[in-house]
Amino acid sequence: MELTQSQGSEIVGSLRSIELSSTGEVSTLMANVRGVVDGERLTLAISTPMSSPEQNYSGVLSDKGLDLNLSGDAGLVSKVHFTRDSVENFNAESQRLAQTGQVIKAEKLKGARVDALNRSASALEASLDAYVKRANKQINDTPLFVTYFIQASKEIGAKLQHAQRLATGNDQQRLQAEGLLVQIEGSEPSIRNTSESIDGAIEDMVREAASLSARMTAFRGICLGDASSVHPGDIIPDMGPCKSLTAAVSRFEAVRGAVHECHERFQKVKAAAIAQLEAAWRAAGGAQ
Fold first, then answer.
1. Record's superkingdom (predicted)?
2. Which of 122, 180, 193, 258 is surrounded by the most beta carbons within 10 Å?
3. What is the pLDDT of residues 3-34, one digit of tens each?
4. Which sign, positive or negative, has the C-alpha torsion 241, 242, 243, 249?
């Protein structure tokens, strides 16, 4: 507060208040001051531009500063103390508050970035565990699919041989042979659909593994692998999410190789079975 005594006992001046919020924002309040002084006692009216009516204060001026009393509702009195000081010191304190505000903002920004990394690490962990679950299911289901294609190849091959034998017999046997050939041809769509569905699921797993590997690169050096490149002040995830992600990556790497080998073995068996089935389908079509 800066006060100047003008003519007689009149006082004019200004009040500048600077406040630092918990978010690091610095706000400044400017107010006009007018009043009267009588020795050490004074009465002030303080008003801010475009605000509520003036607030009236009474107080005492001493070598230690200025003590003001504000009378409020129900007889309550608010006391405000102003210490004598210089404009230079006030400006220096204002600068210190501004610098402190920048530090608070930087820390909050860092905290927000760490929170974002924590959420990203947790989301990646969930995706890795979902992949592991699907991979284990595919590994467990593979023997069933292997049996399906081997059995289909054997059954269709046996039907074709039986149809070929019946085709050399009498009219009734040839009619039976035609029925078997129709069954052989009719089996192709469902077997093809099953094959394509499985191929699609395998391709999805390959794409998902590549996508997960790409997402993991964001955590290399700060959470995964060698962390020697981390320097003081770097933004890194918290220990909890980081450890959980590291464990999820280990599970992912362990099952990724296993499911790849499983896919390769299955595709070899399926390719051989499909080749035999295609020969049977062509033979059945040509025999009709």
1. Bacteria
2. 180
3. 888 777 888 888 888 888 888 888 888 888 88
4. positive
Encode pLDDT of 48-59 as tens digits: 877 667 788 888
As a whole number of Å, the CA-based R_g of the chain is: 42
* Co-location of 123 and 78 in the same domain: no
Q: What single-letter DSSP state applies at residue 77? A: E
Please classify residue 172 by burial: count the beta carbons closer than 10 Å to its beta carbon, then call 0-12 exposed, 13-18 middle and 19+ buried.
exposed
Distance CA 115, CA 236 (A): 10
Report the alpha-carbon distance of residue 264 to residue 274 in Å, rounded. 15
Residues 165, 67, single domain; the answer is no
Domain total in the chain: 2
Residues 71 and 8 in one domain: yes
CA–CA dist 129, 262 (Å, integer): 19
| Contact residues for 141 (Cβ-Cβ < 8 A; gap 6+) | none
Is pLDDT of 210 > 90? Answer: yes
pLDDT at 134 over 90: yes
**CB neighbours of 113 closer than 8 A, spacing ≥ 6?**
235
Boundaries of domain holding 38: 2-84
Question: What per-residue confidence (pLDDT) applies to 129?
Answer: 97
- Judge whether 97 lies within some domain: no
Mean pLDDT value across residues 189-216: 96
CB burial readout 67-76, b (16+ within 10 A) else e? ebebeeeeee
Burial 88-97 (b: 16+ CB within 10 A, else e): eeeeeeeeee
